[in-house]
Amino acid sequence: MIIYRLGVDDLADMRFACSPILETATSLWALTTPSAHVLHLPWIRQTLALLNDHPDRDLLMALVTPELHWLPDFLTPRPTSPLPDVHEELAQIRSTPPRRAVADVLRAYDGRPLPPVLADLSPRQLRDRICTAIAAYWELAIEPHWPRMRALLEADMIHRAQLLARDGAAAVLTGLDPSVEWANGRLRMRISSYQLTYESDVRGRGFWLVPTLFAKHTIGPLDPDGPPTAAYPARGIGTLWETRPAPTRQALADLLGTPRADLLMALDAPTSTIELARRRDVSPSAISQHLATLHANGLVARARAGRVVLYTRTDLADRLIHNRL
Q: Checking DSSP bridges between strand 271-272 and strand 308-313, what pairing results, if any?
């Protein structure tokens, strides 16, 4: 069990983020134990076929500890912003001191012998080989699907941010998943591998809540001194790989008008007013007027992520677009 002690200031400073490198690393769980990740089977089949003769296949699979299914901490860096850039995160793991990378791998193996593909490398070689393999694996297996993945993760962030504003931190923390308990200033995360047990004070170090697609329950760093983070299962994972009918733009334009129809269809992922205006080469005020109308009619939702307000389609809008009303 992992226990985080959070004070009032820690709860007030609690933040949300999604991480492309976290998804890249944790997706290896699905490849090593497909039977435990049946919702991802379409992606698993495709990715295993791509990795069949890949030179980094054995190294990537070795990053998931047998039996424990742990991952080295340096491969799951804590985000520094709500929507971190993958290249910045890759640079972050590449800057890991070699000896720390080795220590993280050894901690993940928890006394078990390392396989030759890891054991036969010097500390610098181990770090560099792993980072190179993760970067290539991102491009091969995750990047082609990242817009769809990110949309689901950001939708979860917006939902939790709205819950936080409406019902408070306790409602958010107790709703992460059934394995989490919140009481008396302590967040208890029950980890399936019983060997991982520690208690840690947040004490102003910042606390990030990170939705993820491949975790079966809420997880945290293996190192009790690591940055306080709770990565929890995102909502709606069952919809991630479903095939939707093609949107009917003209019918939507007849109902809402072309500018608002185009705007609504562009909101596949949570997006800011400024970004929407930039894409259309119009003023932010014009976009804001359309968004206000769509929001008033229940077709878009909005939530703050750091200093940015993100807009996304509601379920009602999705049903309207795909003729499912």
A: antiparallel
Q: What is the distance in angstroms between the CA of the first residue and the CA of the last residue of the chain?
A: 44
CA distances from 112 to 107, 108, 229, 242 (A): 9, 9, 26, 39
User: How far is the C-alpha of 22 from the C-alpha of 40, rounded, in Å?
Assistant: 16
The CA distances from residue 109 to 42, 105, 199, in Å, are: 29, 6, 21
d(CA 183, CA 171) in angstroms, rounded, equals: 11
Tens digit of each residue's pLDDT (9 = 90 or more) over 164-196: 888 889 999 999 988 899 999 999 988 766 578
Domains belonging to the chain, first-starting first, are 2-14+149-239 (no CATH), 20-144 (no CATH), 249-321 (1.10.10.10)
SS (H, E, C) 208-247: EEEEECCCCCCECCCCCCCCCEEEEECCCHHHCCCCCCCC
pTM over 0.70: yes
